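Lab notebook, design round three. We kept the backbone fixed and only want residue identities now. Task for the bench partner: fill in a sequence for the structure below.
Input structure tokens:
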């Protein structure tokens, strides 16, 4: 199958993060094993979800890792002009959920890996396909355990959308659930209660002080050149005549690649201690940034040369690349087709030309490093 047919098959499997992904795993296993690749299905920490590792070539020498996540974000509440889980080609664009982030790269890599054929490889090509990345890189751990037991690769390409430029740095992230517990009371006697919603609001307001500290450490290579804090979902309160005893919100901290998140998190905890309500923090997800790696520069320049893109970019979004760098101790770059600006929203698309260029890039990379 060609990359576009593979992409159509992948988009038709609605692998929304957090849901079971068995149909996708079976498709990948059958497609890859059918071409002669060694395929291992590696369960993720979440029941019903699994990662897939496929290898072509000898496993006992350093090789290339092509890495991607196979889950996508949900379409609920989005207004699409086309069916999101069907690939629709229009005006040179391939529309569908996950085309840009990042089934386009998966399709190109599948086309190349299944087409390697019988020509002997000097070095292995590993295709590492994870689940639950969109939940904060929560599925890839066991896949990394398996890869880390193999010889450290020469190069790892994480194919998140960069329009085929080569990013060698990205930010890290910590995601928290914050539970604020007050004391319920009749609202005519507010002094007997502790209002959890109001204390949650005080804590959220206090984040501005943490942001001021965060702004003191800058790296102007990033669009947003410092660590950031953002509150997402918030829930709490009930009938107006009851002082609410519970409020919960989710908070994320994104840090510069080598920045320790702990001092900023300590400021958040300090602010929480000044409240009357009790506050408990639950960590939902954490992944490191992708840090500059001078030893990996030749590998990054090789990829940029083959891709015809720029090298050494810094991107603000997070990827699994920081985890690959941490676990595999190898040169890791982020380079893939399409743009993050076209991902996650309605009418997500990938330019057909980007898909073709990615297939060509990966073919040349395999020929260059593994033949
Ligand atoms: Zn992604």
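Proposed sequence:
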């Amino acid at each position: 199958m060609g990359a576009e047919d593979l992409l159509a098959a992948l988009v038709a499997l609605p692998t929304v993060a957090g849901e079971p992904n068995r149909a996708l795993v079976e498709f990948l296993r059958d497609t890859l094993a059918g071409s002669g690749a060694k395929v291992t299905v590696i369960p993720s920490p979440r029941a019903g979800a699994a990662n897939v590792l496929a290898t072509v070539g000898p496993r006992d020498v350093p090789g290339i890792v092509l890495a991607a996540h196979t889950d996508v974000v949900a379409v609920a509440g989005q207004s699409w002009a086309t069916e999101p889980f069907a690939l629709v080609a229009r005006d040179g664009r391939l529309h569908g959920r996950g085309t840009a982030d990042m089934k386009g790269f998966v399709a190109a890599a599948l086309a190349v890996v299944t087409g390697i054929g019988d020509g002997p490889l000097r070095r292995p090509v590993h295709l590492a396909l994870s689940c639950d990345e969109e939940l904060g890189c929560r599925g890839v751990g066991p896949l990394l355990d398996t890869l880390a037991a193999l010889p450290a690769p020469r190069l790892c390409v994480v194919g998140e959308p960069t329009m085929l430029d080569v990013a060698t740095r990205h930010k890290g992230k910590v995601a928290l659930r914050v539970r604020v517990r007050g004391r319920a009371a009749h609202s005519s006697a507010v002094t007997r209660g502790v209002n959890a919603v109001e204390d949650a609001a005080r804590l959220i307001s206090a984040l501005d002080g943490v942001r001021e500290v965060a702004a003191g450490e800058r790296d102007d290579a990033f669009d947003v050149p410092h660590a950031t804090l953002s509150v997402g979902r918030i829930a709490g309160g009930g009938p107006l005549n009851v002082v609410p005893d519970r409020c919960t919100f989710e908070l994320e901290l994104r840090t510069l690649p080598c920045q320790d998140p702990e001092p900023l998190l300590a400021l958040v905890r300090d602010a929480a201690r000044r409240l009357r309500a009790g506050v408990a923090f639950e960590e939902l997800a954490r992944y490191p940034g992708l840090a500059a790696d001078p030893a990996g520069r030749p590998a990054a320049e090789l990829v940029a040369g083959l891709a015809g893109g720029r090298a050494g970019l810094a991107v603000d979004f997070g990827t699994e690349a920081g985890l690959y760098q941490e676990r595999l101790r190898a040169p890791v770059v982020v380079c893939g087709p399409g743009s993050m600006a076209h991902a996650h929203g309605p009418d997500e698309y990938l330019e057909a030309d980007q898909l073709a260029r990615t297939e060509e890039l990966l073919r040349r990379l395999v020929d260059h490093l593994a033949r």
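Keep this in mind before ordering anything: The first helix runs from residue 3 to 11.
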